[in-house]
UniProtKB/TrEMBL annotation:
InterPro entries: FTR_bsu, FTR_bsu_sf
Catalysis: reaction(s): [thioredoxin]-disulfide + 2 reduced [2Fe-2S]-[ferredoxin] + 2 H(+) = [thioredoxin]-dithiol + 2 oxidized [2Fe-2S]-[ferredoxin]
Source organism per UniProt: Phtheirospermum japonicum
Chain spans, region Disordered: 159-185
Stated name of the protein: Ferredoxin-thioredoxin reductase catalytic chain, chloroplastic
Amino acid sequence: MRALQASTSYSVGFGISTVAPPPPPPRHRVVFSAKAEPTEKSVEIMRKFSEQYARRSDTYFCVDKSVTSVVIKGLAEHKDTLGAPLCPCRHYDDKAAEAQQGFWNCPCVPMRERKECHCMLFLTPENDFAGQDQTISSEEIKETTAKMELGGLVAAVAPPPPHHHRHQTSQKKRKQSVELPHISRADLDQTRVIRADQDHLSAIALRPPNHCT
């Protein structure tokens, strides 16, 4: 199962790879942003809607519930600010106009007509990213998004290794040397004698034999 990534600050994005054997490189990156925390009431409305529509359309939530959670919160945020659950995974020049037009309000037209969900909220059973659940609790949404926000915060505040520390480490590595065993003069002389004897024996072995006439 290929891993999915989701991150929020509260800005959310996750990478999607087109499913095909062999796996191709990611075709596009889906990103949506929520500028304000949605109300609990709107999150609950969109949570219940998502469960009901998944059952009605015979689709399933992503195996990675963090994807489901951030999409539901994105829909809830748009419901609060725009009055309609505009798809949170797309870029719009005019969100208010798009929400009024309705094409990308969840469930969007591609989802209703072809079961194509750009956000991966509703996945058909044969999709490699589809899980087995058509339900998600309020606690799951809170926990998964809280972990993502905490993870993004830790990554943002974690300082990189100090430059001087890396320099000292490299200096220590350069100073390290391999200690060779001490070889005495007598050992060297003995080595020369053995090598001379070996050369003499090799010369005898290669000497052609004497033939009697």
